[in-house]
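User: Can you recover a sequence for this backbone? Please restate the input before giving your answer.

Assistant: Of course. Working from this structure:
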């Protein structure tokens, strides 16, 4: 069954959401930018309402999409999920079949939700979910038809929550990762590790994970050439970490 055969979840838009969106839009430099900010804010608030109904804690006040200075500079529609990371909530207008991904929403996102607007702005439909992307070779858009059912968002949040909890343990691998990671948050690290787990064969974990972890340290860039020359510590750590997380995720499945 594909997403076109599934009933879509409709979320009502409260007047409070419109008031907040209107305030953000009113301080933008152009009418076009104001409209974009308005729709982004409504999309974020709709996903916030959905997650609140599921008792998943969010903090939209800490999201860039509700910061007037940041929305003036970037086309963002992010929602902070407390303790997990930032979820991008992209508006989809009537007749659109793809979700445009601005460059600024590729990194530091645990995933993407398509939020379908109609001509009336009293409610939206949540079209589905796409997990985090490979920031080294990102797409410019996601086809609506390729989105997974919105329920998979909850599964993703649970999976990332389990991984972050592991990184806080006294397991030797978790301790080593905490001492190694210096330039990214744990939420961004586990989102990228989940992507590798989901999209790569097990024999690829070592290099793909090593390359990703190296970008999160202060010690420079990891390349296949450096690995061939014997610098394998980061590969060993990545492989061990992915094996630990795979065990956790398989047991929870």
């Amino acid at each position: 069954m594909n997403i076109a055969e599934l009933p879509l979840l409709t979320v009502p838009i409260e007047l409070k959401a419109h008031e907040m969106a209107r305030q953000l839009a009113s301080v933008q430099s152009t009418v076009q930018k104001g409209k974009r900010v308005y729709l982004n804010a409504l999309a974020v608030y709709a996903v916030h309402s959905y997650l609140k109904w599921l008792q998943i804690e969010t903090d939209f006040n800490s999201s860039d999409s509700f910061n007037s200075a940041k929305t003036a500079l970037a086309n963002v529609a992010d929602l902070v999920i407390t303790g997990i990371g930032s979820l991008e909530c992209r508006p989809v207008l009537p007749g659109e079949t793809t979700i445009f991904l601005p460059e600024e929403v590729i990194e530091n996102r645990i995933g993407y939700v398509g939020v379908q607007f109609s001509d009336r702005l009293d409610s939206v439909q949540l079209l589905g979910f796409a997990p985090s992307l490979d920031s080294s070779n990102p797409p410019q858009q996601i086809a609506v038809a390729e989105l997974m059912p919105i329920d998979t968002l909850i599964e993703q949040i649970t999976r990332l929550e389990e991984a972050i909890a592991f990184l806080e343990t006294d397991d030797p691998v978790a301790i080593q990762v905490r001492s190694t990671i210096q330039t990214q948050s744990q939420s961004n690290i586990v989102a990228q590790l989940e992507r590798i787990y989901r999209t790569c064969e097990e024999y690829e974990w070592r290099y793909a994970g090593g390359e990703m972890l190296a970008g999160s340290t202060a010690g420079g860039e990891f390349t296949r050439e450096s690995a061939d020359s014997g610098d394998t510590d980061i590969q060993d750590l990545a492989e061990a970490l992915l094996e630990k997380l795979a065990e956790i995720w398989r047991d929870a499945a």
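That completes the design. Confidence is low (pLDDT under 50) at residues 218-230.
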